Each structure stands twice: as structure tokens, then as C-alpha cells.
Amino acid sequence: MLSPTHWQKLQSFSLSLDRMLQVSDRDELQASFAELESEFRDRIMPLSCEGLDSAVSSLWVSYLTEMHKQMRLLQTELIYLRSVRQPEKVQERFSNVRQCLEKLRGYCETFLEKL
User: Fold this and answer.
1) Which InterPro entries does UniProt cross-reference here (predicted)?
2) For the range 7-11, what are the long-range contacts, defined as Cβ-Cβ under 8 Å and sequence gap of 24 or more?
3) Helix, strand or coil for residue 51?
């Protein structure tokens, strides 16, 4: 089972992801990502396995690694989004950004709903 601190910080991060999924402007998306990245770096990454069951602790480490990877992929997609000019490429990059955000939200939901 998750500790109250883990749960609260993941819930806040999940809400930030939901807000970012509503953004449809490139510049606003960049600003939202800066806030999301800061929240992930300052509030999620420092969470330790202390106080978690051994099974949950193992899952936490795995999911945290995957979340970190998705954050890096999201950052890369946003760089590409900023540089594309053709409308079809812009839509493709927006779709890739949304996929990264939804995957991150799925990781959060796994912990919030099942553990």
C-alpha cells in the first residue's frame, strides 16, 4: 500500500497531467511542461521506498524509472513540436505528446487506484 505522502504527491502530479492534456497551444504546452517537469523532479523523484511493502517498493522503483523515461520522451516530443511547421506534422507531434502524457497518467492511476 502507498504511504499517504506518496499518494498525495502522485495525486497532485496526476492532476497536473490532466491539466496539461487540456492544453492545445504550443507555447502554453511548453510552459505547462516546465511546471510539470519541476513537480516531477522536486516532488516525485525524491520519494523513497521507505515505509512501502517490499512488493510495492519493487513496483515503485520500476514505475518511477518508466515515468522518468516518459518525461524525457515528452521533453523530446515538445522540442520536435516546437520546430515543425507543416500542419500535419504539428498534429502528429501533438498526438505523440498526448500519448506520453496519457502513459504518465496511466502510471499514476495504477498506483492511486490499485495500491
Assistant:
1) PatD-like
2) 7/111, 7/112, 9/43, 9/44, 9/47, 10/44, 10/108, 10/111, 10/112, 11/108, 11/112
3) coil
Burial, 70: exposed, middle or buried (Cβ in 10 Å; 0-12, 13-18, 19+)?
A: buried
C-alpha atoms less than 13 angstroms from C-alpha of 4 in its C-beta half-sphere: 0
The model carries a pTM of: 0.93
Q: Which amino acid is at 29?
A: L
Rg (CA), the chain: 15
Domain annotation for the chain: domains and CATH numbers: 4-44+52-114 (1.20.120)
Please check whether residue 33 is in contact with residue 70, taking contact to mean a CB–CB distance below 8 angstroms.
Answer: no
**End-to-end CA, the chain:** 5
> What is the percentage of the chain residues whose pLDDT exceeds 90?
87
Per-residue pLDDT at 114 exceeds 80: no
pLDDT of 78 reads 97
